[in-house]
Amino acid sequence: MIRHIVSWRLASADPEQRAADAAGIKSRLEGLRGVLAAERIDVGVDLGATEGNWHVVLDSDFADADDLAAYQVHPAHVEAAAFIRSVAEARSCVDYER
User: Fold this and answer.
1) Residue 97 phi, psi dihedral angles, 5° rounding
2) From CA 65, how far away is CA 1, in angstroms rounded?
3) How many domains is the chain built from?
4) What sequence ranges are listed for the domain Stress-response A/B barrel (predicted)?
C-alpha cells in the first residue's frame, strides 16, 4: 500500500477567497473517489487557528506504485491539478509504503 499525502499553501491573502479556493480543491479531489484506483481519498481544510499552517491536505492510499502512477496521469486528476495549481502558492508531498 502506498500512502500519498499532499499539502498546499494557498496564494490568496483574502480569507473569503482562500476559503472558496480550499472548498474548490476539496470538492474536486473528493470528486475523484470511485473514478480513480485510489483505495481512499480524504481531503481536509485547516481550521485556521494556527498561524503558519498549510491550508489544505490530501491524504490518500493506493494499492501499489502502479495505481499511484495511473492516478497522476488520469485526465480527471490532471483537471483537478490544473485548478489547484491556479490557486496554490506552494505544494508539499510525501509518498511512502505502508
Assistant:
1) -85, 140
2) 8
3) 1
4) 2-96
Q: Domain span at residue 65? A: 2-97
DSSP string for 3-60: EEEEEEEES--SHHHHHHHHHHHHHHHHTTTTTSSEEEEEEEE--S-STT--SEEEEE
- Note the pLDDT of residue 37: 87
Predicted confidence at residue 50, as pLDDT, reads 94
3-class state of residue 89 by DSSP: strand
pTM: 0.94
pLDDT digits (tens, 9 = 90+) for 16-72: 999 999 999 999 999 999 998 899 999 999 999 999 999 999 999 999 999 999 999
First to last CA, the chain: 5
Q: What is the CATH number of the domain that holds 90?
A: 3.30.70.100
